Amino acid sequence: MDEQLNYAPCGYLSLWNTGVIAEVNQTLLDSLEYEREEVLGQHVEMLMTISN
Fold first, then answer.
1. What are the helix (H) ranges across 1-52?
2. pLDDT of residue 1
3. Which CATH class name applies to 3-46?
4. Residue 33, helix vs strand vs coil
5. Could you tell me the pTM of the whole model?
6. 2-49 pLDDT, tens per residue?
7. 21: how many CB neighbours lie within 10 A of its CB?
8. How far is it, in rounded angstroms, from Cα 14 to Cα 11?
């Protein structure tokens, strides 16, 4: 991921067409208190609350 996008003021992630997280920026990781290795390759639903 490009350095500017990695530390952009907003969270960013990209998904494969299956809903699996392909990329995530550091801003979002910091906000959600996750490490990159914890989310890459996981389904996007792992970031959502049950009510979502």
1. 3-6, 26-32, 36-39
2. 75
3. alpha beta
4. coil
5. 0.86
6. 888 999 999 999 999 999 999 999 999 999 999 999 999 999 999 987
7. 19
8. 11
Instruction: Please name the residue that has the structure tokens 């990209």.
Output: 14
Which of 29, 21, 41, 34 lies closest to 5, judged by CA? Answer: 29
Tokens of 44: 């996007």
Cβ contact 11:31 at 8 Å:
yes
Contact indicator for 45, 26 with CB cutoff of 8 Å: no
Tell which residue, 44, 10, 14, 48, has the closest CA to residue 26.
10
Residue type, 34: Y
